[in-house]
Amino acid sequence: MDRRLFLKSALAGTALGAFGPAGRALAATDLLWMTWENLAKDDYLQPFLDGSDVALTKTFIGTDDEQFAKLRAGGASSVDLITPGLDKVSYYTASDLLQPIDFEKVPNANLLYDTFKKTGLGKVDGQTYGIPFYWGINPIVYRADLMDEEPDWSVFFEGDKYNGKLAMRDYALEGIMIAAMYLGIPRDEMFQMDDKQLAEVKKVLMIQKSKLRTYWNSIGDLTNLFATGEVVCAFSWVPPYYDLKEKGLDMGMAKPKQGVIGWCDTIAVPKGVEGARRDAVFELVNYLLGPTYGKKLAYGGPYAQSTSAARDEIDAEQQEKIFIKDLSVMDSFVWKENPPRYNDWVALWNEVKAS
Amino acid sequence: MSARVGTYLAAPVMAFLIALCVTPLLILFAYSFFRVDFVAISYDPSFANYAKIAGSATYRGLILKAFGSGALVAAITAVIGYPVAWFIAKRAGAMKSALLTLLLVPLYSGDLVRVFAWRVLLGAEGVINRSLIWAGVTDAPIQGLLFSPLATHIALTYNYLPFMVIGLWLAFESLDDAWLEAAADLGAKGPSRFARVVLPLTSPGLIAGGLMVFVMVVGDYLTPQLLGGASGITVISAINDLFGTAFDWPLGSAIAWTMLAILMAFFALGAVLIRRSSLVGGA
């Protein structure tokens, strides 16, 4: 590179550097979104940023609990949009941290799937505080090459063929829900289990523990355990199924008839967000429930949006992948809820693990 | 520099330490007397959380398990650390610096790297199992090598051995060989020389290294979680559950303070023992 070209490049670099922050500073509203990293990829959000006068700063969370702890500890005043789980919204409303969703400013909310329109979760006195945003299931994922047949929840509680080859997520809510489904406890009783039912749950969870290789805490770790053959079957999230299939492993995904755990994250607006910032936030919320973002999430995630906005633009194979081809599949889902006696659930879970 | 100037210079550092270290602990202590009602903290002080810990076999068991693991790993590292520290201090000569650096090399890698290295060694498809099968020692992989208390304690010993060796090495450095020669001249055999001369004179290093290893093992929850399998729960992960998932900050604080109080008691005991052994050493 000669000296003239070098100087030109340096000047161009300096100019770009100078205009970058300037462009950001010139935006009318700078919003802060607390969310999961996989939901806020630049590519997903660029169309919105190009078409609005908003600059967006993202702060990523590692767990839902971490998000709540940050807001509860006084962080709500600096955040404009958060991403709590549908089952956790009650934590925020009980702490008076959220404002109701202004549906007039979010027309795409009319396209919410019926399940999400009808759910009582995320609402207080008929007002919605956490609007369903994206959803999925947590199925059983297994090594089809190392198992004889498609498993259901009983694989974690009966027989000894796969002893020491199973894994369960280290999470009280889902662990106890699975035991309840195995025991046939009806869905409408599941989150209000009495002492007798919880004792039954504890009994079968002790049996489960004796069959486990480990409790997993990170999905990357579980993927690794599947790949090395340490674990052949686990209550899982979906990604290991696709990731390992892509790498040539014969993986299976089972959705047990006893029920499948469905999850849904919402978007919610903290209480202090007002005026122009509030308008900008709802503009963003509307975009997140709209077709452009939905399509990008369906192919990039791959995850399903809570509205039908992008459904017709997604091919059948991808629809199948994100469970929106046949929406009746939602009927078998058991949506996670926050049990009123959750502290007892956590204590029980720890008692089982410490046994 | 006068003592007064020294005090003035130390004051900002002390204030910084109090603000950042002591205050959060005091807040935690205050929280341990409150209780939680769903997500609201009820600021009505009581000893209910401490009573809950005393009455819970689970929390008592987890605390005991933590201190048991700490004591076990401290003991194992002491047994391994003594000959290593003696060799580095008394026999390594010009290689001393190189050996000390080598000892610390594993600490330069992250915790997770070390954990996954152990998985590669101990796993069903790992180096050890494959070697055993190749040598005909076993037909199938030994599952208990990984995801077991054995795996946890092997990794904990490996992780914290350098801290014990450094403590003992310092003690050996200040051990005058003339003591050993005098003991030998007086007819003391090897075991007797170790028990009656080496052990008392190196005990400050043993206690300091032991306490360091003990505290770090008690507070380590990543290694048991990732290598301990279904039995990998620790009191620290239970505290984590209480603070995070259950939003029971008061009970979490009470368990944390119970642990802290027991650890402080161990430190006080260690300080007394070091003082006594120093007196013996100086006699």
From TrEMBL, chain A:
It comes from Thioclava atlantica. One of its GO terms (biological process) is polyamine transport. One of its GO terms (molecular function) is polyamine binding. GO terms for cellular component: periplasmic space. PROSITE patterns: TAT. Residues 1-27 form the signal peptide. Keywords: Periplasm, Signal, Transport. This is Extracellular solute-binding protein. It holds the Pfam family SBP_bac_8. It is found in: Periplasm. It comes from the Bacteria. Its main location: periplasm.
Automatic annotation (TrEMBL), chain B:
Its main location: membrane. This is Binding-protein-dependent transport system inner membrane protein. One of its GO terms (biological process) is transmembrane transport. It is a multi-pass membrane protein. InterPro entries: MetI-like, MetI-like_sf. GO terms for cellular component: plasma membrane. Gene3D superfamilies: MetI-like. The chain crosses the membrane at residues 7-34, 66-88, 100-121, 150-172, 197-218, 254-274. It is found in: Cell membrane.
